[in-house]
Amino acid sequence: MSLKNLGDVSYFRLNNEINRPVNGQIPLHKDKEALRAFFLENVKPNSMAFNSITDKINYLIENDYIESEFIGKYEPAFIEKLSAEIHAQKFRFQSFMAAYKFYQQYALKTNDGETYLESFEDRVLFNALYFADGDENLASDLANEMIHQRYQPATPSFLNAGRSRRGELVSCFLIQVTDDMNSIGRSINSALQLSRIGGGVGISLSNLREAGAPIKGYAGAASGVVPVMKLFEDSFSYSNQLGQRQGAGVVYLDVFHPDILAFLSTKKENADEKVRVKTLSLGVTVPDKFYELARNNEDMYLFSPYSIEKEYGKPYNYIDITAMYDELVANPNITKTKINARELETEISKLQQESGYPYIINIDTANRHNPIDGKIVMSNLCSEILQVQTPSELNDSQEFVKLGTDISCNLGSTNILNMMTSPDFGRSIKTMTRALTFVTDSSSIDAVPSIKNGNQQAHTFGLGAMGLHSYLAKHHIEYGSPESIEFTNIYFMLMNYWTLVESNNIARERQETFVGFENSKYADGSYFDKYVTGQYVPKSDRVKELFEGHFIPQAKDWEELRELVKKDGLYHQNRLAVAPNGSISYINDCSASIHPITQRIEERQEKKIGKIYYPANGLSTDTIPFYTSAYDMDMRKVIDVYAAATEHVDQGLSLTLFLRSELPKEIYEWKTENKLTTRDLSILRNYAFNKGIKSIYYIRTYTDDGEEVGSNQCESCVI
């Protein structure tokens, strides 16, 4: 038997039987049967056997499957010992989906794809050895965190660590285009290079002059941002890792840019093929002033980036539209166009209802909470990366006259379910910080100098979380309840505290801080003002019980940390960000990110296989009342939970809103009919803005299919 000729296997059939209620009950035991069958029929007969881990490593090196350099930093005896310790933990996947996803997408296979060359334990071992960079104690700690699934490196890191033939360890990139042909050309080349090595690419086009703006030395006028968008879309389609994955990109435009309506129209279903973008994602940066103008139903002015840069000597992105709005309106040297703010808000809602786009970045909110000197101007493909950038300047040879700073995202995630049982929460977070530090230190994107420069100066990473809904359901806490909000607040406070502690330790060890630390709110201590009040401690009896046994920093602990940071600095400019998570949450057997589940028995369509069903972690008669689908939940509850986490996250959180096309009137008090309207989306966006949310990712709209039957249509079944 081989992986390409499995014959008559039973595990897909057994898994599919979950979706067929028996006597009004969901037969969850069928998933466990599918899991056992998967190992018996697929994994065990198709895994290459070795006498020892040393033999396996020698084979993998000799056949160019893994690199020898990171292995050579350890004695064989230590590797044998660490491998034995990992296996002694007796790790077991808890669902068929978790095991299937790992062996399909992450496990190393032979070149012909016929045989597995590593188990989950082996992938953990190679990750630990690779990220520890020769430090045996750190390797042991990392292995301990990963085998207990308290820490999950992001997919590019977990998948590629130690492999000879691999992509980058980083997850995605952000680049900013300035208003000249050299920058546009260089940015297209950067998009090609970054898409080739893996990861999504975010691009800010707000600095580009609008359609119709003059071009110095030419009789014609500028074509605006839409043709540039088409160039980027074609670039991503071409640079797709030899067809293995679709190149992915998102373009951002400011809501006060004159091309905003043309920008939005590129995603409309009835858009002309000449301007329609099919695979490119759209994002809009929204200053506070827009919310004010829309709320008051006033007209708004769109300002020419060309005239702004000519008048003020700086790119559009670096003008504070909210603060300067009245001045820009009054300035006769600024070319401007007038539209109605509420009509534009409706256009945004229409497009979100139709396509899920655009992402929304509340740019003033992001900068208000930003402790770093400089300006955040955009985000990434998933809207959780929010870091300062500086523009580059190029000459006609496309050489850098002034090298700016762009962004690479180095991500990882905690699993809340397992972190809350960690014997030492602080040690766990400090270990993760060390692993992510290795990723940022070892990343060097030579093909895009602005990315490399930004990474070398900032040493940033984004540690996030997954499994919140799973944890709350397990402890019989309703998602969005006061207890869930308080729990989220304390959990992310602890992540913030311990990443600060370890970043300070690394800065002290290396005698090095991120560039610009001395101008940050960390350096003057003002960042810690809210923490030294001692308000961030569990208050309700329920949350006190949940955090029993975990160290909770008091006011004096924050005071001590503030003084240490002021004295020795921080190594990392940014530390926290919550990504949406994908297949990696299945491997961790938990709900994705910190949003609610969408289905108690989730249905996944897998290529060439058909449907696979994934029951929510710990689904049982006891927990089913606490596993409300996101589509049946008031989205203000989700926003409230995200707002609690945002309080402590120095970057952003991928917040998805889940809505039904037929929206129950009993959920939202303003509804007079069940149909989802643009007004609903506008109200929720404004609610999120007022709660301090920095970004909104997708709007997902669910259309019920009355012909579909099974457990997904009968989620109230007793288990």
Automatic annotation (TrEMBL):
PROSITE patterns from the UniProt entry: RIBORED_LARGE
CDD domains: RNR_I
Family that this chain belongs to: Belongs to the ribonucleoside diphosphate reductase large chain family.
Pfam families: Ribonuc_red_lgC (PF02867), Ribonuc_red_lgN (PF00317), RNR_N (PF08343)
Name of the protein this chain belongs to: Ribonucleoside-diphosphate reductase
Biological processes, Gene Ontology terms: deoxyribonucleotide biosynthetic process
Swiss-Prot/TrEMBL catalytic activity: a 2'-deoxyribonucleoside 5'-diphosphate + [thioredoxin]-disulfide + H2O = a ribonucleoside 5'-diphosphate + [thioredoxin]-dithiol
GO molecular function, one term: ribonucleoside-diphosphate reductase activity, thioredoxin disulfide as acceptor
Transmembrane domains' residue ranges: none
Function: Provides the precursors necessary for DNA synthesis. Catalyzes the biosynthesis of deoxyribonucleotides from the corresponding ribonucleotides.
PANTHER family membership: RIBONUCLEOSIDE-DIPHOSPHATE REDUCTASE 2 SUBUNIT ALPHA, RIBONUCLEOSIDE-DIPHOSPHATE REDUCTASE LARGE CHAIN
InterPro entries on file: NrdE_NrdA_C, RNR_1b_NrdE, RNR_lg_C, RNR_lsu_N, RNR_N, RNR_R1-su_N, Rrm1
A GO cellular component annotation in the UniProt record: ribonucleoside-diphosphate reductase complex
Domain Ribonucleotide reductase large subunit: start-end pairs: 558-580
